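Entry for the shared binder. Reason: the reviewer on the internal report wants the predicted structure included alongside the sequence.
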Amino acid sequence: MSTLVTHILRGFRRKARATTQARSAYGGDPRRPVVVYIAANIMEADLVKALLESEGIDTFVTNTAMGQAYGIQIGKLAEARVLVPAELAPRARQIIEEYHIQDGEDTEADASD
């Protein structure tokens, strides 16, 4: 290899290393979307999205288009992912967990009546 190519490759390597260190040291981009919930289908994901948005958390849902195109309602193709900005993920997970705990308590109380 020529010295110019070697010099360019070393520059790329240094830049990549510096970027990786910065991301690991500072936790990356706080606005980067992260998955906080994997729903069984798009309807469940939309309910979770509505719950989080009612608490003021920007949310969006992704899913596999093939599942919707073929009308698949169960299994991996029907799954939908709820994403929020990384900085809001802990709060979003807490809200989802609180809702599921409350929902479970209501169901148990109704069953015992």
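Summary line for the report: Residues 39 and 53 are 16 Å apart (CA to CA).
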